[in-house]
User: What shape does this take?
Amino acid sequence: MNYRHEFHAGNFADVMKHALLLRLVGGLQKKEKGFLYLDTHAGRGAYDLTRAATGDSLARRPEWPDGVGRLTGRGEGPPGVAEYVALVRKFDGSRRGGTAADGAPKFYPGSPWFVREQARPQDRLALCERQPGECAALREEFQFSPRTTVQETDGYGAVRALLPPPERRALVLIDPPFEAQDEFARVAVALGEGLRRLPGGVFAVWYPLTERARVDNFFADLRALRPPPTLAAELTIAGDAAPVKLKGCGLVVINPPWQFDREAEPMLEFFGAALAQAPGGGGRVTWLVRE
Ligand SMILES: C[S@@+](CC[C@H](N)C(=O)[O-])C[C@H]1O[C@@H](n2cnc3c(N)ncnc32)[C@H](O)[C@@H]1O
Assistant: This one.
């Protein structure tokens, strides 16, 4: 397995995941009490988009121009989208050589950065990354961040090790590379463990829409856990007939904050139009287990 998120940073899937992540954090922060943010597959925390065009040996087509690159020049969009774009611009503008103005970004933040940006003094971050090089970069990026731990470890094990947190409140992002055949099954086991340890926790899982049948099996495994209210927010950027491998992606959210579905729907609709790569795309929220 040699997954490097660098090659995908800022693509349509990152856009959707990070914009919705911000809304999840906002939802949890409607209550004063602090919470633990556990990022089981945190990545390196910050990405240089110029490096996304070069592989170890092969030239790659960068993915961010069809993702965040389509949004930074646009001023429109529902509030959740505007908030996301403003943060991407802030991150990019803060890096040496970044683009302070409205132009195409040169740097793109990872999930831990988005959450750190919103974290209050009472919130904590636990960031896990198994790949040593990525974890070293993450550690450097977050070395001066208060209330943040970075661990080079298996993120699935961290669900067992870190839950329940003393705060009794948590947002857990599970964002694996989905290179292994059994990744969906491992996620389902981790969710079962997480729900046993913290039934009221908010669990968000990113997944790819490459084969619908695999996603349907995953949903069946989730329902078998008899979880609390659970929804799936999905974005498709191309219809079934299109010659595009990754046709979309989704975010399953267990225990979504109040009205998260109402915030997510217009954002997904907007992304469905703005990020389409072929006819037949769109965005929607489906309840797997009703509120
Ligand atoms: C999709 S990327 C994460 C992106 C990040 N969450 C973000 O949104 O910016 C997946 C990461 O998981 C790491 N990884 C793979 N297997 C892992 C495991 N079992 N535990 C922790 N990290 C793992 C990979 O090295 C990769 O950096």
